[in-house]
Amino acid sequence: MKIDRLVSIIMILLDKQRIGAQELADKFEVSPRTIYRDIDAISMAGIPVRGTSGVGGGFEIMPEYKLDKKVFSTADLTALLIGLTSISGMIRGEELIHALSKVQSFIPADKAKDIELKANQISIDISPWMGNIDIQPYLEIIKAALQENRLLSFTYIAHHGIKSQRTVEPYQLVLKSSHWYLQGYCHKRKDYRLFRLSRISGLQILEKTFTPREYQKPILNFAEMAETLQSRIKIRIHKSIIDRILDFCSYNDITPEDDEHYLVNFPFIENEYHYDILLSFGDKCECIEPLHIRAEMKRRIHNLANLYKN
């Protein structure tokens, strides 16, 4: 019997005049029999729940047990609903269902339409447009391992395609820049590592548990480091890709050259990731300077062209 579910049912009963067993069962994804057992437990705890049968029947709590819902403002409830509904799209589970039910139970009837309208004005969808179909089930596996302090085993593909088998103590799920990561203590490296879920395969939750050690949170803000490593290069772009360029810099970095082209003061670090960004713009982008980066782009384009000669 889940305490969270019992609390959520109490909150719903405090809010509603009457609700049926089947409606509760559907909301919490359990059987009506389970709901009846939950209602018995709530009654035994001293909360007067009464049931009525027939059409329009269901469970209800005596009116004097109604809760004062003024503890949360309209803005508070709207913010909570936006946050919970956005994350529930990717991470599913009973705890989120219960949390949503609790928040919804605080919404006064005369404010319901206004709060629903305001909550719908902002939509946060963190699910990808397309991509690795394993991410969703992997999130559920990792979440279970986090809750039970169980080891995870998986194959990981690191930089340059290097593949290795890892056993990891999971400590945190991280969503950063639309990508999911697992922060954990890697037994192979004997240190904390941040693993990108899209590079994980064969993820398994092991029976073996672990005693949590002193946790080191991952460093997720690289702004200062990027400023140290970054330089600015000059590129010429066709106007057709200016929308893509604006994902990496601002309008202040762009000046018109002629009716068809722009010159861009482009942020750049000399690594594979940033060279791949330039290459992704195809023939709509030309590196002007510095000359050594222009030469490296020519070399990479030459190698790419050689792949298609035959």
From TrEMBL:
Pfam families registered for this protein in UniProt: HTH_11, WCX, WYL
Keyword Transcription listed: yes
Alphabetized UniProt keyword annotations: Transcription, Transcription regulation
Keyword DNA damage annotated: no
GO molecular function, one term: DNA-binding transcription factor activity
Protein known as: YafY family transcriptional regulator
Domain HTH deoR-type: 2-57
SUPFAM superfamilies: Winged helix' DNA-binding domain
InterPro entries documented for this protein: CBASS_pafABC_assoc_protein, DeoR_HTH, HTH_11, PafC-like, WCX_dom, WH-like_DNA-bd_sf, WH_DNA-bd_sf, WYL_dom
